[in-house]
Write a structure and sequence with these properties.
- With about 325 residues, this protein is α/β, with parallel strands linked by helices.
- The protein folds into 2 domains: about 110 residues, Alpha-Beta Plaits (2-Layer Sandwich); about 200 residues, Rossmann fold.
- Helices cover about 25% and strands about 30% of the residues.
- It has 9 helices and 16 strands.
- The radius of gyration is 23 Å and the shape is elongated.
- The termini are far apart.
Length: about 325
Amino acid sequence: MKWVKFRIKTVTEAEDIIVSTLYDIGLEGAQIEDKIPLTALEKEQMFVDILPDGPEDDGIAYLSFFVEEKEDGSLAVNGMPSDRETIVAQIEEELDGLRPFMDIGEGSITVTETEDIDWINNWKQYFHQFYIDDLLVIPSWEEVKEEDRNKKILHIDPGTAFGTGMHETTQLCIRQIKKYLTPQTRLLDVGTGSGILAILALMYGAEHAVGTDLDPCAVEAVAQNMEANGIAGSSFQMMIGNIITDQAIQDSVGYECYDIVVANILADVLVQLTPVIVHHMKKGGIYITSGIINTKEETVREAVEAAGLKLLEVTYQGEWVSVTARREQ
């Protein structure tokens, strides 16, 4: 199938009103492009495959709506036959109705056609097997080559949760986990996403792992990746909730019971997390953090030391930083 894309140039203050207005005429599922900085909550719910700091907000926004094009070239809105010219005229009418009451900016409309889009799977063309040192990371849709069958292999499919191992911060965490892991390790992975870090720890011999995440999509992603790597369900427990603020999650995770805590999330979230997470670590436990752009290194180091942890090492890859510390006896 093909899709016709109607893209409106407007201003950020008008986004919600325009989306709501056009929803009423049958245009749904808006794609919003702007440069508004992420809020603290939005950052908390993100993972590090995006940069924590974007370009400066210029007040401009683009709203895109997609309408399926039938085989005969016709369009339909609200189940009723339509065409490009009619839809553009409807959008212009709605925008003109808003202008006397608010600034909607330029309000220009461009119409383009996209080829068949698989909204969930289209991105897979960019993710292929690769190595992290001696570890082969391979997605579920690729085959292991004959010459790689005797190597350490992590099968990963992020699904609708984040975490493929390609990002520098994930690789920094993996190296630190391997360095401090023992057969007795009980690991807590905060912001587990696809489960890649906890699953890898179990593959390398950890005794047990617990993952927490804000996104319910992580549950299915973790379950699939555990199965793909032959990880027993009893060795990995998954919890959804905010360990920073949710007392029930804190109690469920448990106190002073983890040999390693790993948190691959944004620096601003690590600042909030660190004084909380120290209570879940065993004495002598290791705290591995990343998701830290190099300009935020000192901020995280200060948070770690303020929580009473001893800084062990700081490692780097590209523009990213990993801070590792220990809870003293």
